Give the backbone structure.
Amino acid sequence: MEQRYNMQPEEAWKAIIGNDAAYNSRFLYAVVTTGIFCRPSCKSKPPKRENVRIFPDAKTAQAAGYRPCKRCKPTDQRLPDEEWLLQITAALDANYDQPLTLADLADICHGSPYHLQRTFKQRTGITPVAYLQNKRIEAASRELLHTDRPVAEIAASVGLPNTAYFITLFKKLRGFTPREYRNQFRQEEVTPNGSC
Protein backbone atom coordinates (compact mmCIF):
# COMPACT_ATOMS: atom_id res chain seq x y z
CA MET A 1 0.00 0.00 0.00
CA GLU A 2 1.56 3.25 -1.19
CA GLN A 3 1.80 5.95 1.47
CA ARG A 4 0.78 9.52 0.53
CA TYR A 5 -0.73 10.76 3.79
CA ASN A 6 0.11 11.42 7.45
CA MET A 7 -0.83 8.05 8.87
CA GLN A 8 0.69 4.65 9.31
CA PRO A 9 -0.20 2.23 6.46
CA GLU A 10 -1.48 -0.34 8.96
CA GLU A 11 -3.90 2.20 10.48
CA ALA A 12 -5.26 3.14 7.05
CA TRP A 13 -5.61 -0.52 6.04
CA LYS A 14 -7.56 -1.31 9.22
CA ALA A 15 -9.89 1.64 8.50
CA ILE A 16 -10.51 0.38 4.95
CA ILE A 17 -11.15 -3.23 5.99
CA GLY A 18 -13.34 -2.09 8.89
CA ASN A 19 -15.31 0.42 6.77
CA ASP A 20 -14.52 2.98 9.46
CA ALA A 21 -16.46 6.21 8.80
CA ALA A 22 -14.33 8.04 11.39
CA TYR A 23 -11.53 8.13 8.76
CA ASN A 24 -13.66 9.53 5.89
CA SER A 25 -12.31 13.06 6.39
CA ARG A 26 -8.70 11.88 6.79
CA PHE A 27 -8.04 10.06 3.51
CA LEU A 28 -9.50 8.34 0.45
CA TYR A 29 -8.29 5.13 -1.11
CA ALA A 30 -8.10 4.09 -4.74
CA VAL A 31 -7.95 0.60 -6.20
CA VAL A 32 -5.50 0.22 -9.08
CA THR A 33 -7.38 -2.66 -10.73
CA THR A 34 -10.73 -0.83 -10.91
CA GLY A 35 -9.54 2.75 -11.34
CA ILE A 36 -11.98 3.87 -8.64
CA PHE A 37 -11.46 5.78 -5.40
CA CYS A 38 -13.58 5.47 -2.25
CA ARG A 39 -14.12 6.65 1.28
CA PRO A 40 -12.76 4.33 3.99
CA SER A 41 -16.38 3.57 4.97
CA CYS A 42 -17.33 2.28 1.49
CA LYS A 43 -19.23 -1.00 1.66
CA SER A 44 -17.75 -2.31 -1.59
CA LYS A 45 -15.87 -5.61 -1.65
CA PRO A 46 -12.52 -5.21 0.16
CA PRO A 47 -9.65 -4.72 -2.29
CA LYS A 48 -6.36 -6.57 -2.26
CA ARG A 49 -3.94 -4.58 -0.16
CA GLU A 50 -1.28 -4.42 -2.88
CA ASN A 51 -3.79 -2.70 -5.22
CA VAL A 52 -4.61 0.13 -2.80
CA ARG A 53 -3.33 3.69 -3.18
CA ILE A 54 -4.05 6.31 -0.51
CA PHE A 55 -4.85 9.96 -1.27
CA PRO A 56 -5.46 12.94 1.03
CA ASP A 57 -8.45 14.16 -0.98
CA ALA A 58 -10.63 13.63 -4.07
CA LYS A 59 -8.81 16.23 -6.16
CA THR A 60 -5.50 14.38 -5.76
CA ALA A 61 -7.10 11.02 -6.56
CA GLN A 62 -8.75 12.43 -9.69
CA ALA A 63 -5.48 14.07 -10.78
CA ALA A 64 -3.89 10.60 -10.57
CA GLY A 65 -6.53 9.29 -12.98
CA TYR A 66 -8.99 7.64 -10.59
CA ARG A 67 -12.78 8.01 -10.81
CA PRO A 68 -15.10 8.45 -7.82
CA CYS A 69 -17.06 5.48 -6.52
CA LYS A 70 -20.70 5.38 -7.50
CA ARG A 71 -21.62 3.75 -4.18
CA CYS A 72 -19.95 5.94 -1.51
CA LYS A 73 -19.71 9.18 -3.58
CA PRO A 74 -16.35 10.43 -2.21
CA THR A 75 -16.73 13.75 -4.06
CA ASP A 76 -20.26 14.21 -2.68
CA GLN A 77 -21.37 14.34 -6.32
CA ARG A 78 -23.04 11.71 -8.42
CA LEU A 79 -20.82 10.10 -11.07
CA PRO A 80 -22.34 10.84 -14.50
CA ASP A 81 -23.97 7.79 -16.06
CA GLU A 82 -21.77 8.11 -19.16
CA GLU A 83 -18.63 7.73 -17.07
CA TRP A 84 -20.12 4.86 -15.13
CA LEU A 85 -21.11 3.14 -18.38
CA LEU A 86 -17.49 3.35 -19.57
CA GLN A 87 -16.41 1.83 -16.26
CA ILE A 88 -18.95 -1.02 -16.53
CA THR A 89 -18.01 -1.74 -20.15
CA ALA A 90 -14.29 -1.75 -19.29
CA ALA A 91 -14.95 -4.19 -16.43
CA LEU A 92 -16.93 -6.50 -18.73
CA ASP A 93 -14.24 -6.32 -21.42
CA ALA A 94 -11.47 -7.07 -18.93
CA ASN A 95 -13.27 -9.91 -17.14
CA TYR A 96 -15.33 -11.65 -19.85
CA ASP A 97 -13.31 -14.85 -19.49
CA GLN A 98 -14.03 -15.10 -15.73
CA PRO A 99 -17.17 -16.24 -13.92
CA LEU A 100 -19.04 -12.95 -13.50
CA THR A 101 -22.44 -12.33 -11.94
CA LEU A 102 -24.34 -9.07 -11.87
CA ALA A 103 -23.48 -8.81 -8.16
CA ASP A 104 -19.76 -9.29 -8.98
CA LEU A 105 -19.95 -6.59 -11.64
CA ALA A 106 -21.75 -4.24 -9.25
CA ASP A 107 -18.97 -4.80 -6.69
CA ILE A 108 -16.26 -4.11 -9.26
CA CYS A 109 -18.04 -0.94 -10.41
CA HIS A 110 -19.16 0.14 -6.93
CA GLY A 111 -22.90 0.32 -7.41
CA SER A 112 -26.01 -1.68 -6.72
CA PRO A 113 -26.87 -4.56 -9.09
CA TYR A 114 -30.34 -3.11 -9.78
CA HIS A 115 -29.07 0.38 -10.61
CA LEU A 116 -26.20 -0.98 -12.71
CA GLN A 117 -28.54 -3.22 -14.73
CA ARG A 118 -31.08 -0.43 -15.28
CA THR A 119 -28.49 2.21 -16.23
CA PHE A 120 -26.60 -0.11 -18.59
CA LYS A 121 -29.78 -1.17 -20.39
CA GLN A 122 -31.09 2.39 -20.67
CA ARG A 123 -27.82 3.59 -22.20
CA THR A 124 -26.96 0.63 -24.46
CA GLY A 125 -30.28 -1.06 -25.20
CA ILE A 126 -29.00 -4.41 -23.90
CA THR A 127 -28.37 -5.92 -20.50
CA PRO A 128 -24.88 -6.42 -19.08
CA VAL A 129 -25.43 -10.19 -19.46
CA ALA A 130 -26.22 -9.82 -23.18
CA TYR A 131 -23.12 -7.64 -23.63
CA LEU A 132 -21.02 -10.23 -21.81
CA GLN A 133 -22.44 -13.10 -23.89
CA ASN A 134 -21.67 -11.22 -27.12
CA LYS A 135 -18.14 -10.48 -25.93
CA ARG A 136 -17.57 -14.15 -25.09
CA ILE A 137 -18.94 -15.39 -28.42
CA GLU A 138 -16.82 -12.83 -30.34
CA ALA A 139 -13.69 -14.13 -28.57
CA ALA A 140 -14.73 -17.75 -29.21
CA SER A 141 -15.34 -16.98 -32.89
CA ARG A 142 -11.77 -15.68 -33.26
CA GLU A 143 -10.43 -18.77 -31.50
CA LEU A 144 -12.43 -21.10 -33.75
CA LEU A 145 -11.05 -19.48 -36.88
CA HIS A 146 -7.44 -19.11 -35.79
CA THR A 147 -6.72 -22.19 -33.66
CA ASP A 148 -7.35 -25.93 -33.68
CA ARG A 149 -8.27 -26.00 -30.00
CA PRO A 150 -11.25 -28.22 -29.14
CA VAL A 151 -14.64 -26.52 -28.74
CA ALA A 152 -14.85 -27.40 -25.03
CA GLU A 153 -11.44 -25.83 -24.39
CA ILE A 154 -12.43 -22.65 -26.25
CA ALA A 155 -15.72 -22.50 -24.35
CA ALA A 156 -13.92 -22.67 -21.00
CA SER A 157 -11.33 -20.08 -22.09
CA VAL A 158 -14.05 -17.49 -22.78
CA GLY A 159 -15.81 -17.98 -19.46
CA LEU A 160 -18.41 -20.57 -20.52
CA PRO A 161 -17.24 -23.90 -19.05
CA ASN A 162 -20.57 -25.65 -19.72
CA THR A 163 -19.95 -26.84 -23.29
CA ALA A 164 -23.59 -27.65 -24.06
CA TYR A 165 -24.67 -24.15 -22.99
CA PHE A 166 -21.80 -22.62 -24.98
CA ILE A 167 -22.87 -24.47 -28.15
CA THR A 168 -26.51 -23.41 -27.67
CA LEU A 169 -25.55 -19.77 -27.07
CA PHE A 170 -23.10 -19.77 -29.98
CA LYS A 171 -25.77 -21.10 -32.35
CA LYS A 172 -28.30 -18.56 -31.07
CA LEU A 173 -25.94 -15.63 -31.66
CA ARG A 174 -24.11 -16.82 -34.80
CA GLY A 175 -26.65 -19.09 -36.49
CA PHE A 176 -24.17 -21.98 -36.58
CA THR A 177 -22.79 -24.45 -34.08
CA PRO A 178 -19.13 -23.75 -33.24
CA ARG A 179 -18.02 -26.67 -35.42
CA GLU A 180 -20.17 -25.50 -38.38
CA TYR A 181 -18.85 -21.96 -37.91
CA ARG A 182 -15.24 -23.15 -37.91
CA ASN A 183 -15.75 -25.35 -41.00
CA GLN A 184 -17.65 -22.72 -42.98
CA PHE A 185 -15.69 -19.59 -42.20
CA ARG A 186 -12.20 -20.97 -41.83
CA GLN A 187 -12.60 -22.47 -45.28
CA GLU A 188 -13.75 -19.10 -46.65
CA GLU A 189 -10.76 -17.39 -45.08
CA VAL A 190 -8.36 -19.87 -46.68
CA THR A 191 -10.07 -19.92 -50.07
CA PRO A 192 -11.74 -16.54 -50.76
CA ASN A 193 -14.74 -16.68 -53.08
CA GLY A 194 -14.61 -20.48 -53.04
CA SER A 195 -11.61 -20.61 -55.39
CA CYS A 196 -8.67 -22.97 -54.90
Notes: The chain has a mean pLDDT of 88. The chain has nine helices and four strands. Residues 30 and 53 are 5 Å apart (CA to CA).
